[in-house]
Each structure stands twice: as C-alpha cells, then as structure tokens.
Write a structure and sequence with these properties.
This protein has a six-stranded parallel beta sheet with strand order 1-6-5-2-3-4, sandwiched between helices. Strand 3, helix 4 (about 100-110) and strand 4 form a beta-alpha-beta unit. It has a single domain, classed as HAD superfamily/HAD-like (Rossmann fold), CATH 3.40.50.1000. It has helices at about 5-20, 40-45, 70-80, 100-110, 125-130, 145-155, 170-190; strands at about 30, 50, 85, 110-115, 140, 160. The longest helix has 19 residues, at about 170-190. With about 210 residues, the chain is an alpha/beta fold. It is built from seven helices and six strands; from the N terminus they run H-E-H-E-H-E-H-E-H-E-H-E-H. It is about 35% helix and about 10% strand.
C-alpha cells in the first residue's frame, strides 16, 4: 500500500518551517534503533514505544523485521511487549480499506498496528487512548522528520530519528522529501536550534548519535 496525500503534514509544515523549527529537531538521531539502549529507556520510566514501520524497522512495504535491527527490536519487545505499536501513515489509516494492510502486518510481525484517523503529525487521540499514559512517557521512532519527529515533538513525546535502512523499494515521494528535510534540519542545528525540552531526556539513552 503506497502513501497518499497527507493533509495534516501539508497544513502543519509552514508552522514548523517558519515559526517553530524546534519541532523538527529530534532528541536523538541515530543510524538505526540498535543505537538506542532499551534498558535505559525502561529505566528512565518510559511506558510505551511507537515505531514507524517502513525504513524504521522494516524495508519499505516488506512485512519482515530488517536483519539490521532484528536483535535490537527483539530487545525492545522483551521489555515492552504489547506496549509497542506501529504507527504508519498508510496501514491503519482511512486509506487502508477495512484495515487489511494493518491486519496483514499484525499477522506477519505480531505487532499491534494503531488505527488512527489523522496521519502524523496528527493522530495523538488514538495514541492516548491506547497507552493511557502521558505522552511524555512515550518514545517515537521514525525516519521522517516532518511526520514522525514533528508528531512526537508536537505532543511532548521523546523523539528518535533513524536513518533509512535501505533505498530499495523506497517511496519516491518520501525519498524526495527526505533529501530536502535532512539537510534543512542539519542547517538549523548548526544555527543553534534545539529540540523541545523533555523531562526524561538523558544523553546515555543514545549509544551512538549521527548529529
């Protein structure tokens, strides 16, 4: 299932681009999820994990955990169990007829796919309903700045940006946007823009940072 038009991202982009740049800056930026210490995340009191799917834990449109992050993801699963969800901007949205893609992913991966009406950077209502805790007690992992990272920062979630796992099969639109957004946030960081304050931020959560 390919991604379709994302009204929330389009409407929110000018606010981030010209007014609230900090929302686009992740708390951590890493090569992949193996560079994050799951024990530290648990130790510092985070109660749930939200993962984007494509190019965060799987290759694009493949329902199999990518070998690069298989061991790391298993560690997160052992600590968090059903307190892990996939939040995609395709599967589990209104574009996903009868949630067939979401059901297929759940069957193949054994991971809950969150059903949500608004695409990231919207969709917090369903997150709150599922986890039943403060957003500040959640962690968002994703490869996209203006959807995954902005969503997390917008609602007080700790944000972890991951580099893409593979270019093979990557969505063409996503690839074009990524080539724009990554250099942009690096420029902002050089100018001193920092991520929003997070009460549970601790540097030792990250084992190896890209930024």
């Amino acid at each position: 299932m390919s991604q379709s038009f994302n009204l929330d991202a389009v409407l929110y982009f000018p606010w981030v681009r010209f007014i609230k740049k900090s929302l686009a800056i992740p708390h951590f930026s890493v090569a992949d999820i193996s560079k994050i210490d799951p024990e530290k995340i648990k130790y510092y009191g985070f109660k749930g994990l939200i993962f984007d799917k494509d190019n965060t834990i799987t290759a694009p449109y493949i329902n199999k955990i990518h070998p690069t992050v298989l061991e790391a993801f298993s560690q997160f699963q052992s600590l968090y169990g059903d307190r892990i969800v996939i939040m995609s901007n395709s599967a589990g949205t209104k574009d996903d007829k009868d949630y067939e893609d979401a059901k297929k992913i759940e069957s193949d991966l054994g991971i809950k796919v969150l059903r949500h009406d608004k695409k990231k950077p919207g969709g917090i209502a369903e997150v709150n309903e599922y986890f039943g805790c403060s957003p500040t007690e959640l962690v968002m992992f994703g490869d996209r700045i203006f959807t995954d990272v902005v969503f997390g920062n917008r609602y007080g979630i700790l944000t972890i940006h991951t580099a893409l796992l593979t270019e093979e099969g990557d969505n063409k639109t996503a690839a074009k946007v990524r080539r724009y957004e990554l250099p942009l946030i690096k420029k902002w960081i050089k100018r001193g823009v920092t991520p929003p304050y997070h009460e549970k931020y601790h540097p030792d959560i990250c084992l190896e940072s890209l930024i």
